[in-house]
Design brief:
Length: 634
């Protein structure tokens, strides 16, 4: 890589080996003013074997970036070394700080610890700049000087082969040997050439000395039986009449009737009384039948009402109990509480039709309202307000933006495929700069930055700063490149067509050949739409399914509480925190879940999200890109 400092340098690294892990660091500012003030910082490190080595490596790189960003004047390698050893005392390596001076001169400072070294070659002679551990060496370099810095067993290989002059072919050979030997090691090889003069207005400011402190941010009747008594109805029997010859007895009876005529009258009266009793009996019978009918009707109504009350009780009581259980459970197990309310809502929606037009219609409405309130509490649904931070359209009219990636804290890279333009945007100062352009019709898909260059993904490969040369050209095996990601010095490309992830390792000033990153027996089961990288690789499917991979192998990970019917298109993960977020622009929401438990605890809703194109975490802050504007959700 050629820089305005007048140096060409190559790099090689084997990140993981039997002896631990290794990495290279290179920070050369884009801006010429910053380059004059701060210079450039390089490092090669070697860490001990550890399960979480990738997390450790990412943390170290971010810490170094933060230190470089905060420092106001470069070149104080002593202060850097003191702060570095205080935080990473178990990590070996060497560091080089190059500062430009007037007249094209360049001052270098070196420091090392452990299994590492620095050598300067001038006029055919080698000068060992390793010195004592922790001791800073300072000097001036000249044109045609060469410098080598290494960590791990790379020093032995250089000594064995007596390598003094290094070119791209030699660096590639060294890298292959490291890979074959499974030794973690890193190296940087510099050639110093004549510098190009850069016109910069120098400023001298007096700054009070202060101690910088890096803080680690570690975050469910018996029915009444009625007996109807029916008294036996007594019927009046007809009077008996004797028929036959008249005897002495009958004659005596006739004589008696003659002397007692009133007897006949009495007999007649009694007969009329019997008729009246019969009439009353009939009336009483009719009345009884009426009362019986009324009783039957009333009894039927009561039975029906009791039956309906029993049904309502059987329907409503379990729902009320589940609502209360979910509200008690939400603090302990929010995912379980949300699942409980989801199941209750399904039951309610199916069975409520039996009651909505009847006696209990008001109770149904009240119960539905309680369900909705419980869902709001347990689901984490929140109406959010979009707060604008940077409006790119104010500087670039028509700029909508398709993808967004984090350059560093407070600074993002945004790409607009239609315009063929990539800009950097600072959220604090609202400073917007075009870093790559003239990409109309080139189908730019995604972009990321390695600190000194902008890497742009297109269907045919990866270009550097939008140029046609110096990047990666895909071979026929790559079907449909979708997303680009960076971890350490390596690039990772998600191929949604083949459901593969390809790794392109950093070599010299470019990248090596395509390597299948997934282990031999591993595969992606979802149709991938996006990818995010911390120390693991997170692959998103369009239905809210996320698969987690570590070192090419799938980890046991399942999301809980993802709403039904989601249509996810973007994923973002916190680099140091425990959250991941998914964008569903169809339903206008962002779903926030835990990387550790898989529980989805929040659903942030906003009409603005229906126009959103990407999301990205800056620390713990979730940034949203929508209609050419970068903002946050409150």
């Amino acid at each position: 890589m050629n820089t305005s400092l007048g140096i060409n340098f190559f790099r090689t690294v084997n990140e993981e080996g039997s002896n631990g892990w290794a990495q290279v660091y290179a920070r050369i500012p884009f801006d010429d003013y910053e380059l004059v003030d701060k210079g450039a910082l390089f490092g090669v490190v070697l860490g001990k074997p550890a399960e979480n080595w990738a997390d450790r490596e990412a943390e170290l790189m971010e810490w170094t970036d933060e230190y470089f960003n905060k420092v106001e004047g470069g070149g104080d390698l002593g202060s850097f070394a003191e702060s570095f050893k205080e935080k990473y005392g178990d990590i070996e390596g060497a560091w080089l700080w190059i500062m430009p001076k007037t007249g094209g001169a360049r001052e270098i400072k070196t420091v090392r610890w452990g299994l590492s070294g620095v050598s300067l070659f001038r006029g055919g002679k080698e000068y060992n700049l390793a010195g004592e551990e922790g001791k800073v060496l300072r000097g001036m370099v000249e044109a045609k000087d060469s410098l080598t810095m290494w960590s791990g067993k790379l020093g032995e290989y250089l000594k064995e082969e007596e390598i003094k002059i290094v070119d791209e072919e030699k660096v590639l050979s060294i890298g292959n040997r490291l890979t074959e030997s499974r030794e973690a090691a890193a190296g940087l090889f510099f050639d110093f050439v004549k510098t190009q003069t850069v016109s910069v207005v120098e400023k001298t400011e007096e700054v009070e000395e202060s101690n910088l402190v890096v803080e680690e941010i570690v975050e469910k009747p018996e029915a009444e039986r009625e007996t109807l008594y029916r008294p036996e109805q007594e019927e009046d029997l007809a009077g008996e009449e004797l028929i036959g010859p008249v005897k002495a007895k009958d004659k005596l009876l006739n004589w008696w009737r003659k002397i007692r005529p009133s007897g006949r009258e009495d007999l007649r009266i009694d007969r009329e009384g019997g008729q009246k009793r019969k009439k009353w009996a009939v009336l009483m019978g009719v009345l009884f039948l009426i009362l019986l009918a009324v009783s039957l009707v009333t009894g039927s109504i009561k039975i029906q009402a009791d039956r309906e009350a029993k049904k309502w009780k059987e329907f409503s009581e379990p729902i009320m109990n589940n609502i209360q259980e979910a509200q008690d459970l939400v603090r302990i197990n929010p995912s379980g509480a949300r699942k409980l309310i989801e199941d209750v809502r399904k039951t309610f929606d199916v069975q409520k039709a039996e009651f909505v037009k009847g006696k209990y219609k008001d109770e149904v409405a009240a119960l539905e309202e309680q369900l909705n309130k419980a869902w709001t509490v347990t689901s984490g649904e929140k109406e959010s307000q979009f707060v604008e931070m940077v409006n790119i359209q104010l500087v670039r009219p028509g700029f909508v933006g398709d993808r967004m990636s984090l350059i560093k804290s407070g600074s993002v890279l945004v790409i607009d495929s239609k315009l063929g333009t990539v800009v950097s945007a600072a959220t604090a100062t609202k400073d917007i700069k075009v870093v790559a352009g003239k990409g109309e019709g080139l189908e730019w898909l995604d972009a990321t930055s390695d600190g000194s260059r902008v890497l742009i993904l297109n269907p045919k490969g990866v270009s550097v700063n939008g140029k046609e040369t110096g990047g990666i050209i895909f071979d026929m095996a790559v079907s449909k490149a979708t997303t680009i990601g960076r971890f350490g010095a390596n690039l990772y490309v998600l191929d949604s067509g083949n459901k593969e992830i390809y790794k392109y390792g950093a070599i010299s000033d470019g990248y090596g050949d395509r390597v299948r990153w997934l282990a031999q027996d591993q595969s992606i089961s979802v149709t991938p739409v996006d990818m995010a990288i911390d120390s693991d690789v997170w692959v998103l499917g369009e239905s809210g399914v996320v698969e987690r991979f570590r070192r090419g192998a799938r980890e046991q990970f399942v999301l809980n509480g993802v709403p039904e019917g989601v249509k996810t298109s973007r994923i973002a993960v916190q680099l140091e925190g425990s959250s991941l977020a998914m964008l569903d622009k169809v339903n206008g929401m962002v779903i926030v879940c835990s990387k550790e438990t898989g529980n989805c605890e929040q659903q942030l809703k906003s009409e603005k999200l229906k126009m959103a194109t990407d999301i990205e975490y800056d620390g713990t802050v979730l940034l949203v890109l929508t209609e050419g504007t970068v903002g946050v959700l409150n």
